[in-house]
Amino acid sequence: xxxxxxxxxxxxxxxxxxxxxxxxxxxxxxxxxxxxxxxxxxxxxxxxxxxxxxxxxxxxxxxxxxxxxxxxxxxxxxxxxxxxxxxxxxxxxxxxxxxxxxxxxxxxxxxxxxxxxxxxxxxxxxxxxxxxxxxxxxxxxxxxxxxxxxxxxx
Length: 154
Description:
Layout: H1 24-37, H2 41-53, E1 61-63, E2 70-72, H3 73-77, H4 82-92, H5 99-110, H6 112-115, E3 116-121, E4 127-132, H7 134-139, H8 141-152
Antiparallel strand pairs: 1-2, 3-4
Helix pairs in contact: 1-2, 5-8
């Protein structure tokens, strides 16, 4: 007899709760759409947001400096690792940073030896830094946040 039971449950995806205020009209639209689609109201809202990702004229499309073609900010910056996601956003779309994030990014760039990956030395013997190392940022994140708070509250 086999005591092993195969699970038929879907793998759990980590979700986040957010509080959203909707007008009565929009709440009703969500309710109706959920009834018609035989799904939850949360799924209707999730689907509407997911539709933004592929909308070529949507709010996630943004031009980088000196480039003619717009880029999808989500697709260009998303990473499951929070720190890598921050680095991607800061490096590619610095105009979207909040004041504290901007202070963190300025600190990272001002201290390449602390936060960048060193890839040997140049011909003059100076360190050559190639990219921001997410592990180094992760290890000193609390320090970066504290420094940013000091900078932004002055």
